[in-house]
Amino acid sequence: MKHLSLFAEHALLPTGWARDVLLSWNDHGLLTDVSVQTSCPTGTPRTAGPLLPGMPNLHSHAFQRAFGGLTEYRSATQDSFWSWRSLMYRFAAAITPEQLEAIATGLYVEMLEAGYTSVCEFHYVHHDRDGRPYADDAVLSMCLLRAAARAGIGMTLLPVLYQTSGLGATPPNEGQRRFIRSTDNMLDLLQRLKPLCEAQGARLGLAPHSLRAVPPDSLREALMGLHSIDADAPVHIHIAEQTGEVDACIAWSGQRPVEWLLNHTHVDARWCLVHATHMSAAESARAAQTGAVAGLCPSTEANLGDGIFDAHTWLESGGHWGLGSDSHASVNAAEEMMLLEYSQRLATRQRNVLVTEEQTSVATAMTLAAVNGGAQACGRKVAGLVVGQQADAIVLDAQHPLLRNLPSPEAMLSTHVFASHRQSALSQVWVAGQLQVESGRHVLHDNASNGLIAARQQLLENTQ
After folding, report:
1. Whole-model pTM over 0.85
2. Which long-range contacts (CB under 8 A, 24 or more apart) does 398-406 make?
3. Which residues are catalytic?
4. Rounded to whole angstroms, how far apart are CA atoms 218 and 224?
5. What is the gyration radius of the CA atoms in the chain, in angstroms?
6. How far is residue 142's CA from residue 451's CA, in Å, rounded to a whole number?
7. Contact 170, 408 (CB under 8 A)
8. Which of 352, 378, 404 is the last residue of a domain?
9. What confidence tens digit (pLDDT) does each residue in 119-132 have?
């Protein structure tokens, strides 16, 4: 039976927790009414526990899920992001369209089961394995769109502009041959993809990979071209992720990466600064005041040894932030929140750091902030349980052993984030008013998992 409404005894709205909440939505999955302190109409489904807004995942490289867990071996005298990248290039060089679609479908089902309802796919494997364009230049982008549609997750597709291997227009290396596009070629791809995304309800944006991969002239031309296609399209960029990148940028330009970007580009609320780990206090304050979102990926940043984001300075300047799973070392929305909070505790030697004046519960404050920032980065109407936004929601299981008989929904959410397995307490996941996960399991769980397993095995055999 198709439902256009849902009742929850407790729901987390943008203004905070509310009692006896009735959500109603239209055939397009957009919320048309959010009533509080009301009764449940006959025939309307009731949730099994507190209702949360769906969590956007603002940074994903889907194909990298295929080599999760395989980089935890010392391969250099001192391992770092740069030594990790060599294995990533091997998988990027080998993957086929069929494998990419299978991996992405399996990953997106995992995301839904782990509490993500939207994903921003930072997509940079564009061409055939020899580096030549496919006959259909959009074939790999279409694989990702189909995977998202099949899994039922919201999609913001971000084709990546990648032209050089280092600052100063260093020529690309062999491992990057599948990534390279001219600026005109990228804009042609965006024109091709725009109607396809619109037909699916997906959003299209652009991802200049990084300052080291996109020379200044190309960055300027690409942004001008994107503006003519869609003036409000989201723009995502990797920036200031590693100290080596900062040092190289200073050597090239005399400026730090975020400083250079702010001095040479109009950064505004369309932008997502992915990682932004190594900013000076001045950079952080300036970037926050543009309205851009800091795209934080705590499990990947920890896995790669990137460093710890200075949340205190960012938030003091009014900065917005959201969460991504990036290389998918972890695929779990609550775990990313826990890791972000714990990193701040380690850096400041304090507890309960990421609260706000309005919300003194860490889990509640972080959920609202991550949903708001993630929605902004998605460029889609997924900013929580409020009229006009999409009916994306997550239901916690009030009968979970650690949630049962707790005194408040805040306590249940806090336990979910900081004391459960961070997925075991999820009961249902709704996307655009469609139930995608029931009793913690997606209807495509087995098929999607088997497809991912097969594709991973093939890639392992081909990258030995």
Report:
1. yes
2. 398/48, 398/49, 398/50, 399/48, 399/49, 400/49, 400/424, 400/425, 403/49
3. 275, 326
4. 10
5. 21
6. 17
7. no
8. 378
9. 999 999 999 999 99
